[in-house]
Specification:
By secondary structure, the protein is an all-alpha fold. The chain has 8 helices and no strands.
Amino acid sequence: MTETLERYFVPEPSKFPIFGSVALLLFGSGAAMWVNKLAAGPWIFFAGIAILVYMLFGWFGQVVRESESGKYGHQVDTAFRWSMGWFIFSEVMFFAAFFGALFYVRVLAVPWLSSGDTEALLWQGYSGAWPNAGPNASEAFTPMGAWGIPAINTLILLTSGATLTWAHYGLLKDKRGQLKLGLLVTILLGVVFLSLQAYEYLHAYSELNLRLDTGIYGSTFFLLTGFHGMHVTVGAIMLMVMLARAMAGHFRPDSHFGFEAAAWYWHFVDVVWLCLFVVVYWL
């Protein structure tokens, strides 16, 4: 009986963490300078973006090459799965903070400002019915309805989750055409979602007088939906990379965690949107 001992993979020293640290430093300081109207701000900000893109291409490219060359075993696969799991958990906490802020405003802060001594002494006649911009808002606005573009976008994202799962089944059955077609359709659905959301924002600003500075309703609406849109963009980029890798012949039915990680992230984005649709648009 032959016993196979799996090697413990130790990566070589890498320069990319240093590039990542410099990129984040330039990104943050450039953004702060830009907000404060310093001339160098935009240049430093985009320099940080450029270095970050270089780091991502270089570092992930190195990982892909190591994976395709057979250097990774079960130990590395488990480490990757735990890492992606903790990353998605951090994203859950990120959105939980914004959902918590919305809950605090709707259930506690606004009703408190519109009742009792607070209303009598500070904000006479203020109604706390949601949606509400807050007691100090002076301009009228129209809240975003649920049964238009948001409902269509919900259907689009749910469909994209199904097409991605279909692509995954194709990979498990070694049907490369199904894998590539499913990924392509999922990416296109993500692009359609983002296009409709951009149109929704344009409609909100031009016709509903709903802006980021429209009190507490506008700020929570655009922060929640805007950050979600950013995550859809990141997820679509991840799926584009997976499609490029699939076309290059990467992934096997028994070894394809790169694809699974992108799929986990996309399904997480789908779930967040369902919560957004119910809490932000519908209720």
